[in-house]
Amino acid sequence: EEKEEAMSGGAEVPGGDAAQAGLAGLLASLPGVPPSPVRDLRARYTKIFIGNEWRDSISGRTFPTFDPASGEKLCDVQEGDQEDVNVAVVAAREAFVLGSPWRRMDASDRGVLLSRLADLVERERTTLATLESMDSGKPFLPAFFVDVTGAVKTLRYFAGWCDKIQGRTIPVDGEYFTFTRHEPIGVCGQIIPWNFPLLMFIWKIA
């Protein structure tokens, strides 16, 4: 009963007996009782994060976001447009400039930063899962065990790779020296879909 409460937030699970049976099977497979969603949670950060700071949109426009399950308005978010994207691209490109703090940072230290981020996401996983559930309309339990837990695992996986990305030399016929070298593509942009926004965001930054 405690697990069902955490899954549905106390609401009846739609779909009839088949859905209830499937939910019961899923809950039975979980290691222990999952946490409950954070009650009366309000979004604290609704601005655009560029250049290591929170900013209003250049246009000053905002848009409302709603909980699809209840129709309740969650907050007003800064509405970025092409001008904001251009500013973000310029800020991101600065990290690739020779002599920048990021370029000077050792690969293992970059891995440490990703590991720290994983620890922070794990520390706030109940809050983040609640926000994902409210924003996308998905049940809390998948948001907790798939979206947020998957984000933590992704960060730790790539943190371990940071100091292990190396090129290879390849033996070929003739007087040739053949090798591979990994280089960053550069600044990338992604339009995040609605269903796994946090996890897909982490896929990119990790």
Automatic annotation (TrEMBL):
Task: Cite the Pfam families for this sequence.
Answer: Aldedh
Q: Which residues form the Aldehyde dehydrogenase domain?
A: 54-206
Q: Which InterPro entries match?
A: Ald_DH/histidinol_DH, Ald_DH_N, Aldehyde_DH_dom
**GO MF term set:** oxidoreductase activity
Output the PANTHER family linked to this UniProt entry.
ALDEHYDE DEHYDROGENASE-RELATED (PTHR11699)
What protein name applies here?
A: Raldh2-like protein
The organism of origin for this protein: Lethenteron camtschaticum
